[in-house]
Design brief:
Blueprint lengths: L5 E5 L7 E8 L12 E8 L3 H9 L12 H7 L2 E2 L12 H10 L3 H4 L5 E4 L26 E4 L35 E2 L5 E2 L2 H4 L5 H7 L5 E4 L24 E4 L6 E3 L15 E3 L11 E7 L1
Helix pairs in contact: 1-2
Length: about 290
């Protein structure tokens, strides 16, 4: 994928489980000889290169051999299919996404998984929604702690908008992150470490924004505002390098219903709704597709 100096961005519509950004590009002299003005990046959890090849070209046993992702296949006609790359190791959502938008390895980023460990930080002030226990923090003392950057840091992970005050029903943005549930930094007065300051490298979004452009991103959790990259100054609770950010909490809610744990016909009046306390699963691979116009 070629790299351009970008000056604007706008969030694209996306399907469940995908993330997307559209950037309007203005290349430096000599770079944009083909007149490319827009770059669309789509990242889909668990989609290997072979999965994309199969769905774009079709396989005999599915859909009568026709493409079963025609829209992605159409995007490919105007894009770049770049195969000389490796997924991050580990290849889960958080390190995979951050590697794509920064070019850094998990070791350089300090990002290995949504839930990991950092010996320089301290526990959150309040136990997270996914069970990371609260603990003490003393400035200048570094006890180390498990870290968590997923739906458990939301104000209310049982709501689609994450519980952000005054938010719409489906969009809490980064304002739905509860600072009391964030791990803390003893080197900076035990201040909460927001997702964008947990990562150690700048990102394409910080480059776009700081160059005077308009940067936007849409994702499955408010924690993924981490794509904004490190920042300093006020306000500390919002990602400075994202001019637009949309994140509805997409981890499914489960229904405890008579005879079936997940009966589609259940309603809140008939069944007790329960949000899972853990979302652990096998390691997944990440892939991305880029197209230009």
């Amino acid at each position: 994928m070629r790299v351009f100096l970008t000056t604007a961005a706008f969030v694209a519509g996306l399907a469940l489980g995908a993330s997307a950004v559209v950037e309007t590009a203005q290349a430096a002299p000599g770079l944009n000889s083909e007149g490319i003005r827009h770059v669309l990046l789509i990242s889909i959890d668990g989609m290997h290169s072979v999965d994309f090849i199969n769905c774009a070209h079709g396989v005999a046993s599915v859909n009568n051999g026709a493409s079963y992702c025609p829209h992605l296949a159409e995007l490919r006609e105007h894009g770049v299919n770049y195969l000389d790359s490796n997924t991050s190791r580990p290849s889960d959502s958080f390190p995979g996404l951050m590697s794509i938008v920064s070019g850094g390895l998990p070791r350089s980023l300090g990002v290995y998984y949504d839930v990991a460990y950092d010996r320089s930080l301290a526990p959150p002030a309040v136990t997270t929604g996914n069970g990371l226990s609260a603990g003490n923090c003393t400035p200048g003392q570094f006890p180390g702690t498990t870290t968590e950057y997923e739906e458990g840091i939301d104000i209310n992970q049982g709501l689609v908008n994450g519980g952000a005050p005054g938010a719409g029903l489906t969009d809490g943005t980064a304002a739905s992150i509860d600072p009391q549930r964030l791990v803390r930094d003893p080197a900076h007065g035990c201040a909460p470490v927001y997702p964008w300051n947990f990562v150690r490298l700048n990102t394409i979004f910080s480059v776009v924004h700081q160059a005077g452009g308009y940067a936007a991103w849409s994702d499955k959790h408010p924690a993924y505002a981490s794509v904004s990259g490190p920042q300093s100054g006020a306000p500390v609770n919002l990602p400075h390098n994202l001019d637009d950010f949309y994140a509805r909490r997409s981890t499914p809610t489960w229904w405890d219903c008579p005879g079936s744990r997940r009966r589609p016909a259940c309603t809140a009046t008939r069944c007790r709704i329960r949000t899972p306390t853990s979302r652990r699963g096998p390691t997944r691979s990440s892939t991305s597709s880029a197209t230009t116009s």
